[in-house]
């Protein structure tokens, strides 16, 4: 990556500038910050970037990624994950805490964030676990983890089983103004505990043993009720069912402080495709019916679902090249999300271009309190986080060209239109035309 004291982006169609309508503007970056946005800016000392016929938007924000560090760096790490993000147009990510060991203490979080400052080429943040060891028995110290830098609390793929424990987490979240981000899904751990106990827990969502992984909407209903009781903010990850969308819509109408996200795979793929794709389509929550896919799309379009997040979950070939029942859950998405959204949601008219940009920039930044750093918008005086997008660029997904270490992508071979062609963080152009720009 090359450091420039000044970068001048010329003649791009610029989105998400406070108090400015979308239009053709120049952007001057000076000493890592956006100095000026306007017409016909000139600066003889700046590196000039021609963005004519391109769009210029805030760097994309993904609030749901797994970089696997610490503990499973053979699948992904801060170096490879941040480069995959930059290639996809993302300048900011928030990682899940299900590492090994999990991020459940201030010391572990501080250590991880310190390493990230050295190894990540983008803005890296992390959630903390909601319970110690992600085991659902005892709450973490939410106050100290917020001070250490946690952007939310989440047990990632595990629902917080105990109702009293979940209510306490929400009350603590309200007290310390920390977003509670439950994963309302059945994890293998949850199902094993159900089987071991051979009975249902009172007031705890259950699903028919013949239809696993169907309790998402029941968990969402329970957690909505608890959040309403606690007066807390709650954010629902990877919504996948029509019933879930309906329950979130009803909660919003009642004034519950709830937001939600959807992932590209739940927006575009149905369970009918699993047999064709194989284990790279094994994910939790699983791919659903075509009716569910349409309902999630509609929820995203009407604002019931607030944002798009990739749930980038890298795995090694060893973990995926197994029988379907034994293969790991998860797929990767940082390098495909933008292209998929532009091609299959914006071009057909499911979303407007402005909606899609907002759902991947300013809205996730606001939900996770990153907007106060200028993330998600192009605000003069704040650190530059910018992506230049060519809406006309046609390309084919090729997992062998990914910067991620993983290849578990169900979209391999898809033909897309619209791609990030330049990613800028501060005074550095970190990606240009699909290449990561290393130090020279």
Please explain how this structure is put together.
- The protein has 440 residues and is an alpha/beta fold.
- The chain folds into two domains: 2-56 and 381-436, Urease, subunit C, domain 1 (Roll), CATH 2.30.40.10; 59-373, Alpha-Beta Barrel (TIM Barrel), CATH 3.20.20.140.
- It is built from 14 helices and 16 strands.
- The longest helix has 15 residues, at 216-230.
- Mean pLDDT is 93; it is low at 204-211.
Give descriptors for this structure.
single chain; 440 residues; alpha/beta; Urease, subunit C, domain 1; TIM Barrel; 2 domains; 10-stranded mixed sheet; 3-stranded parallel sheet; 14 helices; 30% helix; globular; EC 3.5.2.3; metal-binding; Dihydroorotase; pyrimidine biosynthesis
Question: What is the CATH third-level topology name of the largest domain?
Answer: TIM Barrel
- The CATH homologous superfamily of the largest domain corresponds to Metal-dependent hydrolases
Which residues form runs of ≥5 with pLDDT under 50?
204-211
The portion of residues assigned to helices is 25-40%
Number of domains: 2
Structural class based on helices, strands and sheet pairing: alpha/beta
The CATH architecture of the largest domain can be given as: Alpha-Beta Barrel
Nearest-angstrom radius of gyration? 21 Å
Extended strand count: 16
CATH class of the largest domain: Alpha Beta
* N/C terminus separation: 7 Å
Rounded average pLDDT: 93
Secondary-structure element order, as H and E? Answer: EEEEEEEHEHEHHHHEHEHHHEHHHHEEEE
